[in-house]
Specification:
Rossmann fold; 7-stranded mixed β-sheet; 33% helix; globular; binds S-adenosylmethionine; methyltransferase activity
Length: 274
């Protein structure tokens, strides 16, 4: 099991469902679609979702593109029901050999996984290799850094994040991969275009830009639910229930004007002849 991602023994529970759905519909609401602005091929070859979770993205894509085969990989088989064009494959991204041949997928999607994986560069390299020439690679993640408009972040919100990031680093996980995604993809030299959207997701609907409200609510729900489900190991690192609940109160107070950046990246792989 990955040390920085807590999944109940029984699989994905109601709390995780709520968190994953809120995050998914927040991002979908921002773009209006599931592609983060990427122009998808009309008739794609197989699609890969790395870290498919409860399958909220994959299920919708299966419905949207019924002729496409969608493959989801994860350490947990989290889909309660599977569409006919969806295949789940158990894969531990940290321990198992990468099972896919180069260029097998026209679309590769990976959301909120790099922040839980030691050596997320290896994961990115595998995803890049699996993307077909001319295909689309999509990576989405956060930088787990709270910010506040025009002032310092309130205490203990900043404390909870500092302890959690310290814990992640002790496990060899970079807890702030968001800003690295586009640069790593560009540095591979294998893409003809790379697009990065950085969304300052507000904790609560305090900003005047209404377009940010749903994505902000998704991220706030994600942070609160994940923090309330921290594993006992995070507590050994100095976290307490009172720090978690203190952070929740700060995130729920619109006067704090807290936000966190969401990094949404897509890139098109060069065709074979380039
Ligand atoms: C925050 S969830 C995101 C789920 C999904 N991508 C989404 O956005 O709704 C992170 C996912 O990464 C998976 N994960 C964590 N560590 C993993 C590992 N070592 N190998 C495979 N999957 C892993 C978890 O099981 C979980 O489903």
């Amino acid at each position: 099991m990955n040390p920085t991602y807590s999944v109940p023994q029984t699989g994905i529970d109601e709390r995780s469902e709520r968190r994953l759905n809120a995050q998914h519909y927040g991002i979908k609401d921002f773009f209006g679609v599931n592609n983060c602005g990427a122009p998808w091929p009309t008739h794609p070859k197989p699609i890969l979702e790395i870290g498919s979770g409860n399958g909220v993205w994959a299920r919708e894509v299966c419905e949207q593109l019924p002729e496409a085969e969608v493959v989801g990989v994860d350490i947990v088989d989290g889909l309660r029901s599977k569409p006919p064009n969806f295949t789940f494959r158990l894969l531990n991204l940290v321990k198992d050999p990468w099972p896919f041949s180069p260029g097998s997928f026209d679309i590769v999607h990976c959301r909120y996984v790099t922040m839980h994986i030691p050596n997320c560069k290896q994961l990115l390299d595998n995803a890049i290799e699996a993307t077909a020439p001319g295909g689309i690679l999509m990576f989405e993640d956060q930088d787990q850094q709270l910010r506040a408009e025009g002032k310092p972040v309130s205490y203990p919100a900043v404390l909870a994040f500092t302890i959690f990031r310290g814990y992640c680093e002790s496990c060899g996980v970079n807890p702030r991969p968001g800003a690295l995604l586009a640069p790593m993809i560009i540095a591979s030299g294998q893409f003809s275009e790379t697009h990065e959207t950085i969304v300052p997701a507000p904790m609560g609907p305090w900003t005047e830009d209404k377009k940010l409200h749903v994505i902000g609510e998704g991220m706030r729900t994600g942070i609160i639910e994940a923090a309330r489900a921290f594993s006992p190991k995070v507590y050994e690192f100095g976290m307490t229930k009172s720090i978690v609940e203190g952070m929740v109160r700060e995130l729920e107070n619109p006067e704090n004007k807290i936000y966190a950046n969401e990094y949404l990246v897509w890139a098109r792989k060069k065709p074979d002849h380039l």
